[in-house]
Automatic annotation (TrEMBL):
SUPFAM superfamilies: Bet v1-like (SSF55961). It holds the Pfam family DUF3074. It comes from Torulaspora globosa. Residues 67-245 form the DUF3074 domain. This is DUF3074 domain-containing protein. InterPro entries: DUF3074, START-like_dom_sf. It comes from the Eukaryota.
Amino acid sequence: MGFHLNAEPWAEKDLPTDREEILDAGHQIASDVLQNWKRGKLYSFKNPNGQDFQVQTFHTYHGPEYWLSRLSKHTIDETLYEKIVYYLNGSERTETGEWIMPDRTRRSRLEKEYIEVLSDCEILKLTDSGWTLVNLEYNLGKPLSIRDFSEWVYPIAPYIDNTGLEVSIVVSLNAQVPMKQSSVEKNHTAAYYASVERLSYDRNTKQLEWLMCTTSDAGGNVPKWIQNATIAKTVAKDVPFLFNFLNTKQT
């Protein structure tokens, strides 16, 4: 029986190690969004260069856990798509057309470049099975203290699914590790999230579907109902922010 994504903290010894099991768990929750989750607000954004974005949100409860999802669709060329995969998944495409992931920590390290409130990322460990343990510090602005996340991250490079789409997935789990001593001394607040991020690309139509699902707790004194009410817009804004970053990135 495969494992199910949830907000519970995961010890290293309990992590799934089979790629297919991890992939199935990610697909299961991502595929459930359009079928069973409640449709939320549709957000519209415009980038400084005039690009328009439509980001649809969804939400549901898995037991006591509040889960939020966003879905956006983009018509983009293969060059931009491959750049998005590089930053969101950590994979790169060779001259022969094969996807490779020479550094499984890359995806986590690159997040700091395009997530505005992510102030620090430290790679703590890479397991033999491919999970990366990362410590992330989010500066949400005063009067809130720095939020400290410990996460297990498992990226899966793009592959062709049974419909002919090119699909990649990143699964993140709440890590059962103590807060770093340096974070304790700085009075950081422990927080967590679990998430699935899926990219699906059709090379014939040039259509990209970007889906993300997450459950989280920012900790501290912020009530959960306030977090749940505000997270949708925060998550939706990640879409135009990434595209704006890529527009300004010289590669």
